[in-house]
Specification:
The protein is mainly α and 400 residues long. The protein has 16 helices and no strands. The chain has helices spanning 21-39, 45-52, 56-80, 86-106, 110-139, 144-172, 175-196, 208-213, 218-239, 241-249, 253-281, 283-300, 307-322, 325-335, 340-367, 372-392. The longest helix has 30 residues, at 110-139.
Length: 400
């Protein structure tokens, strides 16, 4: 029979449970792995430096390699793969990610580790945007927001739970074991994608020239530049958290993992709370509050010398850092409503390029024997510049 059964007890399509829940949850597991991989190395840089016999600053360039690759590659990969089926594409991205993390774990020297981190960045740049697009397609217009929030939630939970777990593994077992942990989570996501994710329609392609044409709008450029600077200020200090908290507050081991956990929980409140504040106060005011909080918390890290104030400040710092993307996406999509995915991709590139530049600059300063307090104050200065750039963006008439 080709018609649907009307037998008593059979659920009608209108009352059946949403069909997108399981596949989106699987996609979020992949996002969890990506979120963990983006930040976990920050907690184990001293172990990497000792294991490879390099400076902490040099080890920090592994974070630069991952973030820089993601930021530069994501827009181009989106175009190059726009006509490929989504399920195989996501499977390839996860396979690349898993293999790159395993290669990172067995890298015998810094050069090969950097190469492996570049490959991991390519896998993440290929996976995350396509996972979001797949979630939106699975859920449909009525539930698109919820599905996208699940994918973002995977990234956030990766920061909140994955990073402290990976840090603890790195400190109590080995830094290589941390990367094996990330690879294992990615492998579970790969199995889930192969088993659960249905075939999806190929979205319409947006040519590369059309994507980059939005950069002719000066306001778009200024908004992305703001994101780059603010992200760089936040991540420059976060990347070297182990050095900053070790030198200033003598925090190591389990206490360091606890501080990173506080940063991650703050990030949850920042990422979700910024959406609420954007709806209530507008994107401009929300970003102003977030940048001010970022400046204040980076400055306070220079005077926190015990675990309780460190945890409080780290939580607030995480909230400030994670509160930036949503309102900036909001004002970008208001500015270019016809190409929302394009301007959001540029915002994401700004975030990752900021992370790359922040980690690179922080590593240079650390290798020049700059003190942990001076590193934090450098972050303060960059955040202040970001705030000035934010003020240069013309305020829309819809905001009071």
């Amino acid at each position: 029979m080709t018609t649907e059964s009307t037998t008593t007890g059979t659920k009608s399509p209108t009352t059946a449970a949403p069909s997108w829940g399981r596949p989106v949850a699987v996609l979020a597991l992949g996002s969890f792995a990506m979120g963990t991989d983006s930040f976990v190395l920050a907690g184990i840089l001293p172990q990497i430096a000792d294991g490879l016999h390099v400076s902490t600053g040099a080890a920090g360039q592994t974070i630069t390699a991952f973030a820089l690759t993601y930021g530069l590659a994501a827009p181009f990969l989106a175009v190059l793969t726009s006509r490929l089926p989504r399920k195989p594409l996501l499977a390839v991205a996860l396979t690349l990610f898993v293999l790159a993390n395993l290669a990172s774990a067995v890298a015998p020297n810094l050069t090969l580790l950097l190469v492996a981190r570049v490959v991991a960045g390519l896998g993440a740049a290929l996976y995350t945007p396509n996972a979001s697009a797949a979630a939106a397609a699975l859920a449909g217009p009525a539930a698109r927001g919820r599905a996208l929030s699940v994918i973002l939630g995977g990234l956030t939970v990766g920061t909140v739970l994955g990073v402290p777990v990976g840090t603890a593994i790195g400190q109590h077992v080995s830094w290589e074991a941390s990367l094996v942990f990330v690879a294992a989570v990615g492998a579970l996501a790969l199995l889930g994608v192969l088993a659960v994710l249905p075939s999806l329609p190929i979205p319409p392609a947006i040519p590369l020239a059309q994507r980059f044409a939005v950069l002719a709008n000066r306001r778009v450029v200024v908004m992305v530049l703001f994101m780059l600077l603010a992200s760089g200020a936040s991540i420059m200090v976060y990347t070297y958290t182990s050095t900053v908290l070790g030198d200033i507050a003598h925090i190591h081991g389990t206490a360091l993992a606890t501080a990173l956990l506080a940063w991650g929980f703050g990030g949850i409140f920042g990422s979700f709370g910024s959406g609420f504040l954007t709806d209530r106060l507008g994107a401009t005011r929300t970003l102003t509050y977030a940048v001010v909080l970022l400046v204040v918390t980076l400055a306070l890290l220079t005077v926190c010398t015990s675990i309780v104030p460190v945890i409080i400040v780290m939580a607030l710092n995480g909230a400030a850092g994670w509160a930036l993307a949503t309102p900036n996406n909001h004002r970008l999509t208001e500015l270019v409503p016809t190409l929302p995915s394009v301007v959001i991709s540029f915002n994401s590139s700004g975030i990752y390029l900021g992370q790359a530049l922040g980690a690179a600059l922080g590593g240079i300063l650390i290798d020049q024997d700059v003190t942990a307090r001076a590193l934090c104050l450098t972050g303060v200065a960059i955040a202040v510049v970001a705030g000035v750039v934010h003020l240069l963006v013309p305020r829309p008439a819809t905001e009071s």
